[in-house]
Amino acid sequence: MTGPKPGPKPGPKPGPKQDRSRATRQRLLEAAVACLAEHGWAGSTVAVVAERAGVSRGAAQHHFPTREDLFTAAVEYVAEERSQALRTIPTQDRRAVVAALVDLYTGPLFRAALHLWVAASNEDQLRPRVTELEARVGRESHRIAVDLLAADESRPGVRESVQGLLDMARGLGLATLLTDDRARRERVVAQWARILDEALG
């Protein structure tokens, strides 16, 4: 007499494998941004990023089949991380808000994004993806700035004042690529906080 047939053997638990895959993807994204900020588009190949992330080139291409996939995802990933950090800024201090928004455009993310923009101006395959990404990041940055500043955009001139702040921050980011003039930047931040106090009430 035979007993009941054994059921199917339990498969491997998906958790650890998924965790490893997520960790690998995150390492690749962070390495891609660092490479782009340090070496520019020409010096940032998939192989270079994979080596920096400590993974094989095959693993990198499993997550990101093309170079364009990797770098647009990397800039988007860090932009989202930065957006989350911006949302934690205390909104009571308008100068701190202005300084934090300026920091968004003076760190490695902006440097990486700038290299991506320059590459996109010459790479037909990359241009539409970067244009769409920049539009999305720009809209999100504007929304966050409005929330942090408690700005009422129904009032005349308020939307333009917020956008002017972001445009000014981007300009300071470009200047920082050549020189690190923190003292001047702090004076500009202080002046913009005063301007926004008057414009936003």
| Average of per-residue pLDDT values | 84
Q: What share of the residues lie within helices? A: over 70%
Strand fraction equals under 5%
Tell me the radius of gyration.
Answer: 22 Å
The separation of the N and C termini measures 88 Å
Parts with pLDDT < 50 across at least 5 consecutive residues? none
Largest sheet: none
Reading the helices and strands in chain order gives HHHHHHHHH
Oligomer: single chain
Number of strands: 0
Number of helices: 9
Shape: elongated
Secondary-structure content class:
mainly alpha
Q: Tags for this entry?
A:
201 residues, mainly alpha
Q: What can you tell me about this protein's structure?
A:
- The termini are far apart.
- It is elongated and about 55 Å long.
- It is built from nine helices and no strands.
- It is an all-alpha fold and 201 residues long.
- The mean pLDDT is 84.
- The chain has a domain at 68-200.
- Helix 1 packs across helix 6.
Brief sketch in words of this structure:
It contains nine helices and no strands. The protein has helices at residues 14-39, 46-53, 57-63, 67-86, 94-104, 108-122, 127-149, 158-176, 182-200. Helix 1 crosses helix 6 and helix 8 packs antiparallel against helix 9.
SSE topology sketch:
Elements: H1 14-39, H2 46-53, H3 57-63, H4 67-86, H5 94-104, H6 108-122, H7 127-149, H8 158-176, H9 182-200
